[in-house]
Amino acid sequence: MKVHEGSYDGAGLRVALVAARFNEVVVEKLVAGAADCLRRHGVAEDDLELAWVPGAYELPAVARRFAESGRFDAVVTLGCVVRGQTAHFTYVAGHAAGVGRIAEDTGVPVTFGVLTTETFEQAVDRAGGKLGNKGWEAALAAIETARLIADLK
Q: Could you give the strand order of the β-sheet that contains 48-53, starting from the edge strand earlier in sequence?
C-alpha cells in the first residue's frame, strides 16, 4: 500500500493569514502563534502575508480572494467568536466555517483557526494559554496539507 502524507517543511511555501479584528486581544495571539509556527517550519518572511478583516463573518471573502489568486499554497483563517445571549454567535460562527468550501472549490488548503467558545476565558486558554495556541495548530495543518496536495499532483 502506498501511503501519502504531508510534511512539516514549510520552505518555499507561500501562506496567507486572514485574521478577524473582533476580539483582537485574543486573535493577535492566534496570529502570533500561526506566524511563529510558519517561520519555525521554514516559511520565509517574504512568503507570508496577513490581512485583517473586521470580524469572523468577513473571513471567507478575503480567504477566497487569496486562495483564488494563485499566489498562495495555503490560507490560514484566524478569529474568535464567543457565544453571547443571542443567536448572533450561530450565524457568525457558521458563516466563518464556510472557509472549508473555499478549499474544496479552489484546491488550496484553507485552515480554520477560528475559536468558537462559550466564554472569553475559554478563548484565552486556546490562544496561547493552558490549552495551547490554535493559531499554531491551524498553521501547521496548512503546511502539512499543502505538502500533501503537492505530493498528490
A: 48-53, 15-20, 74-82, 110-117
Q: In which domain, by residue range, is 86 found?
A: 68-118+130-140
Q: How far are the Cα atoms of 17, 81, 138 from residue 8, in angstroms, in the given order?
A: 17, 28, 12
**pLDDT above 90 (res 89):** no
CATH number at residue 94: 3.40.50.960
| Global pTM value | 0.95
Positions annotated as catalytic residues are 88
Q: What contacts 8, CB < 8 A, 6 or more positions away?
A: 41, 140, 143, 144, 147
Number of domains in the chain: 1
Looking at the chain, the whole-number percentage of residues with pLDDT higher than 90 is: 90
**Average pLDDT across the chain, whole number:** 96
Residue 124 has pLDDT above 90, yes or no: yes
